[in-house]
Amino acid sequence: MAQRITIDPITRIEGHLRVDVEVDGGLITKAWSSGQMYRGLENILKGRDPRDAWLFVQRICGVCTTVHALASVRAVENALGLQIPLNAQLVRNMVQAIHCLQDHIVHFYTLSALDWVDVVSALDADPVATAKLADSLSDWPGNSPKRFAAVKDKVKTLVASGQLGPFTNAYWGHSAMKLPPEANLMAVSHYLEALDYQRKATQALGIIGGKNPHVQNLSVGGVTTNLNPENETAVTMERLYWVKQLIEEVRDFVKMVYMTDVVAVGALYAEWIPYGAGVTNYLAAPDMFLDAAATKADLPGGTVMNGDLSTIKNINVHADPYFKENVEESIARAWYDGDWSKHPWESTTDPKYTDFEDEGRYTWLKAPRFQGKPMQVGPLAQMVVGYAQGHALTVKSVDDFLGRISAVAGVKVGPEILHGTIGRHAARAVRAGMMADLALKHWDLLVNNIATGDYEIFNPPVFPKGEQRGVGVHEAPRGLLSHWIVIQDGKIKNYQCVVPSTWNAGPRDAEGQLGPYEASLMGNPVADVERPLEVLRTVHSFDPCIACAVHMLDPEGKEVVKVKAM
Amino acid sequence: MADTVKTNLDPQLDRRGFLKGCTIAAAALGLSDAMIPKLVEAAATAERPRVIWLHFQECTGCTESLLRSSHPDIGRLILDIISLDYHETVMAAAGHQAEQNLHDTVDNHPFILVVEGAIPTKDNGIYCKIAGKTAMDILAEVAPKASAIIAIGTCATFGGVQAAAPNPTGAVGVMDLVSDKPIINIPGCPPNPISFLGTILHYLTFKRLPALDSLNRPLFAYGRRIHDHCERRAHFDEGRFVEQYGDEFHKLGYCLYKVGCKGPETFSNCPVVRFNDVDVWPVSVGHGCIGCTEPNFWDTMTPFYERLPMVKIPATGIVKKADKVGKTILAATAAGIGIHAAVGIGKSLIKGKKKDEEA
Q1: How far away is chain A from the Cα of B152, in angstroms, using its nearest Cα?
Q2: A234 is a domain residue
Q3: In chain B, what residues touch A532 (CB-CB under 8 Å)?
Q4: Residue B59 vs residue B7, higher pLDDT
Q5: What is the CATH number of the domain that holds A85?
Q6: How far is CA A46 from CA A28, A56, A252, B137, B340, in A?
Q7: Which residues of chain A neighbour B302 with C-beta distances below 8 Å?
Q8: Residues B278-303 pLDDT 10s
Q9: Which parts of chain A register pLDDT below 70?
Q10: Which of A441, A419, A413 shows the shortest CA–CA distance to A519?
Q11: Assuming Cys at both sites, which of A157, A407, A516, B161 could form a disulfide with A376, CB separation 3.0 to 4.6 Å?
Q12: For an interface test with B, which of A11, A18, A208, A489 has the most B Cβ atoms less than 10 Å from its Cβ?
């Protein structure tokens, strides 16, 4: 007989998420994903100055701290037909790439690693054997017996204190934990080192953005980062070289530690490779544009349906009608009145909270659909789309990584292993490596452009009378993000965000099609219903960010406009 | 419990309600010594002081901010200095195991409560639920047992971005709901981790709260205006202003007041301590302050790219209200000034304002 499990809260994510599953014969047979918070930011924006919007929507999420800001300024610029200077494009690209490095590192170590790594088991590890294992995987200089002995001592002290703090009452000793003690000790050591390297990324971001989280160097029309190399208040070459050095240090950590650890987890948990595919329709946006007009991108966009690479359709620019005209959101199973599906510029909603109803409504998240289909977004979507296109950087990065997994696993594996829980981690690690390379490439492009004497950073926005509509698209760390704005006489008339975690964490639609989280859980094993570690593994592999997934109410409590999540 | 947490608080908090809340909280602080022995007792044992960190309506930016800290770094903080018994973003346990950890500490040990995020009060608080309970209910359960409460970020202190007009969910800060506990407010969006860590370390070391202003903000971090220590202040005093981002004056690092900097009316240590250990803050990358440590700044400091009204500019005399700035801002600014006047700060600003009113 099926057993029902409710996990609330899902921890080690951003935001408030509840997941329910039914388990029959040790396998998940039903799943529901439910967003549990909502704030109303889009409604708060109505009537305000469009130039202010990016600062408001940036506060949708402090984990994805740059992404809503970038999508928002793009949405307003798109509505105004305003092109930004090349320097501004490149500075924004730096912000995107560096933030992505920090975000992916934090996701794998701080938010996900404890699903696969048994901290307590590390106490049984031999530091010398651990160093030997680590050396077989990577040349990282931090992998010394002394370092591992020190980390082991730290864990020992913590456990002996009886105050495990954030490690209390977790899944230590769970039968699904398979890593040998040495692999666990290595991972705990890297878990702690990751805290230092993610900080370095944020320092690079701080130099460009003034502070972090929530950079403050953007503006509709460009950036405010002064690039005049002849003035002491500007980001001079000394500062830019500091940025470069920090990126290089983080790149080395990504390539020698993060990617290596994902290879090891993938190889040592090979039995998990078949689980968690779920929705294999993929959607990604082009980004990291090389020109001021945003016509040539370094990151590939497009769609792949049913996991079939031959179905690839490219999205090369944000204005592509194939993207703009095919996005809808369904409210059939969300806490709103009605059961329709509408385009973001057109939809309105009345709230209708019902509490959690298995066969009815059960979440504050809407269900975004593309041509009526659920789509998975995120690093995996971008890797699949890029691979299908033959995008050179993607193909090389993915093939290199698969080669490393094959070498450790002793079996040759191809890109088909990417569809699933482990695959999402692998794709994210590959993307982190790509973003490190691209951050340095765009640093070069920026410095080369400054060298020509071009210090321009800003083209002033002008708001005409009448109505303008714009969309701002961005490939965020969690996937495709779009902000949809309607401006009337210089004020915001409507503002809606369709966010990566809404695509992924959204509920069923009117046709009963499951959202990607839900679909990915089907058939997952659950060894112990009291300790449903396996559910966390698959949900965490998407990198949930639920704060963004919030619809909102108007002042009278009548009309709910939109939903976002990432 | 009903006395401690005003769960029936009117969600439509107005300015007067807010000021009243400040008074209540200040009165509560006067009684705070009574709570201290509990903490001292905990510190005297070998135990690391326990911290429970609750997330409500928030973006996790404050937690992310703490991830950026370097002294102490986050690893040292949570492994060596405190015992972080409940924190949704970093804790290994989930679901009922996580809830068990929360209740074990709340029921059996003294602890410091950190709150990140606002509390929605409209419609019985249904807009934020964790483990089936509303944020209001969770706060009502946990706050009365805390030794002290640190509200981190502008959401937990003043309601934050979701409380911006029209405040669709009736979001409020902790001190609007909790009245008989020491509450320390660390506003900012997000705050500099230095301000939060400084407060925690001060408390653990001296066994007492740092000196606070009338909004419960530590004076060491919020005692002076941004304007007072800004490196571009000389440009302001000499009347040299950026007129538009990217213009020749922006390239020379002139004052950002005319493109909207809110430094003249914002109390924070940003220009002194700076961010991310790389000697930066928003003004150093050419963008004005947005006033994020001030109550209701999303309404009182917007539009962000219009100049503040009523600021005396030495070289050009007093500026009358800027064209696009409405009545709300004027009223709220006046209230903000009143608060600072109460603790003896910002008097010159008030003088400037009075002159303008008289003019």
Answers
A1: 14
A2: yes
A3: 95
A4: B59
A5: 1.10.645.10
A6: 43, 11, 45, 31, 31
A7: 48-49, 52
A8: 999 999 999 999 999 999 999 999 99
A9: 348-350, 547-566
A10: A419
A11: A516
A12: A11
Query: Start-end ranges of CATH 4.10.480.10 in chain B?
Result: 223-358
Say if the ipTM goes beyond 0.90: yes
Q: Is residue A301 part of a domain?
A: yes
Residues A342 and A347: their CA atoms lie apart, in Å, by 5
What is the spatial distance between Cα A73 and Cα A89, in angstroms, rounded to a whole number?
12
CB atoms near residue A453 (< 10 Å): 8
- Window 503-522 of A, Cβ < 8 Å to B: none
- What distance lies between CA A18 and its chain's CA centroid? 19
Structural domain contains residue A561: no
Domain count, chain A: 1
Q: Looking at per-residue confidence, does B230 or B15 come out higher?
A: B230
**Portions of chain B given CATH number 3.40.50.700:** 15-220
Report chain A residues whose CB lies below 8 A from the CB of B100. Answer: 169
Identify the active-site residue in A33, A64, A100, A428: A64
Tokens standing for residue A437 = 């390379």
Q: Is residue A442 annotated as a catalytic residue, yes or no?
A: no
pLDDT of residue A107: 96
B276 neighbourhood in chain A, CB within 8 Å: 202-203, 205-207, 211-212
Catalytic residue among A397, A501, A520, A541: A501
Query: Which CATH architecture group holds B15-220?
Result: 3-Layer(aba) Sandwich (3.40)
Is residue B235 predicted with pLDDT exceeding 80?
A: yes
Q: Best mutation site among A101, A169, A450, A459 for testing chain B: the one with the most B CBs within 10 Å?
A: A169
Pair type for strands B50-55 and B112-116: parallel
* Tens-place pLDDT, residues A300-324: 999 999 999 999 999 999 989 999 9
pLDDT at B312 over 90: no
Q: Write out the two tokens for A504.
A: 């992924």
Q: B150: distance to nearest CA of chain A, Å?
A: 19
pLDDT for residue B155: 97
CATH number for B223-358 (one of 3.40.710.10, 3.40.50.300, 4.10.480.10, 3.10.20.70): it is: 4.10.480.10
Q: What integer is the mean pLDDT of B120-135? A: 92
> Taking CB atoms and an 8 Å limit, are B95 and A192 in contact across chains?
no
Residue A292's identity, in one-letter code, is A
Domain that holds residue A363: 3-114+195-540
Binary contact (B161, A59; C-beta < 8 A): yes
